[in-house]
Amino acid sequence: MIYGIGTDICDVRRIARTLDRKSQRFAEKVLGPHEIEVFRARFAKVEARGISYLATRFSAKEAFSKAIGMGMRMPMTWRACEVVKAASGKPEIRLHGELATWFAARGLRAHVSITDETDYAAAFVVVERAEG
């Protein structure tokens, strides 16, 4: 059964401007432990790839927060929700701390799709509850 659906579109140029203004502190606020490592590696190699990565994660977290009906309030935090790649390359949601506990207690499962182009990143999240 569908618990919630969320979608978000993000202007990559806005993320780039915010990153310029706030330096990597912005990335550290938004990205979880695994994501920040990937971001730094991509940003060091090709800045535009790092910025696109940050924008897709920002968008996915916004979409996830909408799908769970919570917005950005506890236990939902930027760093408690990560978007990681499965071995197949498929993006998956990984949760930490209180958010992981809250999510599991409700028997929820998330599905995420992310995409980006030069100027935009978008994400779509479906959260379902196990029936039973």
What keywords describe this structure?
132 residues; alpha+beta; Ribosomal Protein L22, Chain A; three-stranded antiparallel sheet; two-stranded antiparallel sheet; 5 helices; transferase; metal-binding; lipid metabolism
* The CATH H-level homologous superfamily: 4'-phosphopantetheinyl transferase domain
**Count of DSSP E strands?**
5
Strand order of the largest sheet: 1-5-4
How many structural domains in the coordinates?
A: 1
Structure notes:
- This protein has 5 helices and 5 strands, in the order E-H-H-H-H-E-E-H-E-E.
- The longest helix has 21 residues, at 47-67.
- Strand 2 and strand 3 (91-95) form a beta hairpin.
- It has one domain: 4'-phosphopantetheinyl transferase domain (Ribosomal Protein L22, Chain A), CATH 3.90.470.
- It has 132 residues and is of the alpha+beta class.
- The strands form 2 sheets. A 3-stranded antiparallel sheet has the order 1-5-4. Strands 2-3 form a two-stranded antiparallel sheet.
- The N and C termini lie close together (10 Å).
- The mean pLDDT is 94.
- 46% of the residues lie in helices and 30% in strands.
- Its cofactor is Mg(2+).
- Pfam families: ACPS.
- It is an enzyme of class 2 (transferase).
- Keywords: Cytoplasm, Fatty acid biosynthesis, Fatty acid metabolism, Lipid biosynthesis, Lipid metabolism, Magnesium, Metal-binding, Transferase.
- GO terms for molecular function: holo-[acyl-carrier-protein] synthase activity.
